[in-house]
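Pilot study result, target chain (224 residues):
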Amino acid sequence: MVEVSTSILNVQKGKEADTFFALEQAHTDYFHIDVMDGKFVEKNTYQKMLEYSQYIKRISNMPLDVHLMVEDVKQGILDFSGVEPNIITFHYEACKDEQEVIDMINLIKELHCRVGISVKPNTPIEKVYKFLPYIHMCLVMTVEPGKGGQTLLTDMVEKITTLKQYVEENNLEIDIEADGGINLRTADSVKKAGANMLVAGTAILTANNYKTIIDELKHKSPKK
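Predicted structure:
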């Protein structure tokens, strides 16, 4: 089953509560929390996303899908574990070596969260293979991280296909999340490639009816 994680990065100021309630009623599966520190990526959304997450936690039971685009992964994990997210995803590229990747995986598990690892477009997917048995989700960035509203990089679809083949060949139970440029035009290709979690922000938040587009993202059949 395909799930939709709605990025709240560009929720209109002053309409946060209405938007969060509307997304919950539209049956988004997760709120996607784009955490940026102004260092790992140019934009800084750290405090805003912490405040949004705390607010959502007070008014909703919807699971939070936290995506850390930060240099200080450990501090990000500790800061956002307080909102009891369903999953915390960190970037492979933010870790100095393999031991740090393992340490971050273990820390997230100790905090009773599911674990995700994300890779940027230029990072070969093979770099994270050895960690897949120990995590719950692999997030493939289908745009350069740090900005909303970008166009999906089509060669990332092949990257998802490669990851999916490896997962199946090694009998791994892991979610594959695609993030960046996901809309009704691009969703089918990433689903067909093997992604079962789709992050969408602009496509959903600019739609007239959240439920209609979320349903279409989830259920529209990939072309054979």
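One observation from the pilot: The two ends are 17 Å apart (CA to CA). A full batch analysis is planned for the follow-on phase.
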